[in-house]
Amino acid sequence: MAVRISSPMSKPRRWAGIVARAASVAVTLMGCLVLLGWSLGIVALVELFPALTAMNPVTALLFILLGAGLLRLAWKKTVAPEGKDMVGRLLGGVVVLMGVLRLVDYAGVLPLHIDQLLFASRVNALEIYPQNEIAPNSAAGFVLCGLALSFSGFETRRRFRPAQVSVLIAAVIALFALVGYTYRVLYFYRFGASLPMSLDTAVAFALFCTGFLTARPDRGLMGVITSGTTGGAVARRLLPMAICIPWLLGAVLLYGEHAGYYRQEFALAIFAALSIVIFAGLIWWNARLLYVVDMERGRAERRMAAQHRATRCAEEQLRRATANLQRSNADLQQFAYVASHDLSEPLRMVTSYLQLLTERHGAALDDQGRGFVRFAVDGAQRMRTLIQGLLEYSRVEVRGASLEPIEAEDVFSAAISNLKVAIEESGAEVSHKTLPRVFGDGAQLTRVFQNLIGNGLKFHGTEPPRIEVGASQRDAHWVFFVRDNGIGINPKEFERIFVIFQRLHTRREYPGTGMGLAICKRIVERHGGHIWVESTPAKGSTFFFSLPATNEPALEASRHSPAP
Q1: pLDDT tens across 309-328, in order?
Q2: Residues contacting 551, CB < 8 A, separation 6+
Q3: pTM (2 decimals)?
Q4: With the C-alpha atoms ordered 372, 375, 380, 383, is the resulting torsion angle positive or negative?
Q5: From start to end of 149-190, where are the E strands?
Q6: Residue 188 vs residues 101, 139, 143, 491: alpha-carbon distances, Å
Q7: Are 379 and 349 in contact (CB under 8 A)?
């Protein structure tokens, strides 16, 4: 059985906010009803609990102020941030002042008669209204609650909130009064010879203290109780039971004793026995929660340990595979370089001897023999061209120069100079926008521009070629484009055209080896960039390639390249 504990911002803290707002409304409403009864002379509203002490009108007014301050604190979305609400501080300050003046009045230092500031004639009309005044414990409660409201946002470096301690002391005063009324213990809710705290005053204090503590459920003492930890779950289970069970159990047993069902000794025995049974059950219930959580934690730790071991094994395997791949790539590059270089000499020899055979013995050959020789020479020349392309492809990493700041304008000009004859023969129009300064290998980037522009010159339709070159910056890269009005490319072939030796047309239609775009892709990737194409058949093509706008990515890419 898995125990699911709420996250820090889930149900417990959402419910705490609801409780805080409800408590603020209840405190304000209680004060308003009592004050309305005094102002309109409605004894039923003043004497909410008949035959008991009534709430003083000044007490009712102070509860209205506390309720309004608590409502501002609980409804934090509509008021200033905590600790900066000047209205809330002012309300708390007024409550503190009135409480202090009542304590001074009670001490006999000054006869202020604070409790007679409102409706003095009715307060003194004992034949109509019950006797009442602000009790000393009520005045102390107002001082504590007012201080808490005024300093609600204050927090020490160790995240201690004195306002919560002040409210807890006021809550203890209210709890003693409520327990005293429940068990008819007068000295729990009366101080000395003064009038006792009224029952509705004790209830209002209890509501305010509960609302104040739950208004900031993620701060101070309440942060533990409402947290999603195991400790928070245990606190939420035990605290209500620790308060309610002894209180209610004792009240029920006391009622039975007064009714004559059993004697005092039996009531105490029952209270002790039931308390032992109930709290033993509660302790077992929470111990089971802790046990299940610990078991879940142990299983989670074992799973994490197993995952860690698996991850380390996978990382080691990946490291070995990467090392093997790098070694294989280096060997393959070296093989391609050596093979293409060594194959060039035999091909050159074959071509030379075929040409000598044609020159010296061509007259002795018939038309079919001369055709065979011509096919052999052509095949040897095409193979030599392929080998030269393969050699150039392998040299992109092996013989590439270090990357350094270069002007793309100079690279473009060099490519145009190399293609001058082809441009003039095709009647092409080549235009370009201002090109940026980049980090790269000038010779290799010249080959990229030359291949892409050369493709635009080669694969053109009935109209003369029109080629446009430009660049734009996107985030940390410069994106270059070479746009032409040629025959276009089928979108299904976009990936294939960048593969070595892949051709979309026969040699009779368009000459070439299928190496140009593969070499461009290898060069761009060596610079830390990416190359792609956008095209529509019969409407031209646009080739894009990116180069880093700063040197860090490009230099990082160059570090992984073999030294020349």
Answers
A1: 888 888 888 888 877 777 76
A2: 403, 405, 439
A3: 0.52
A4: negative
A5: none
A6: 23, 15, 19, 89
A7: no
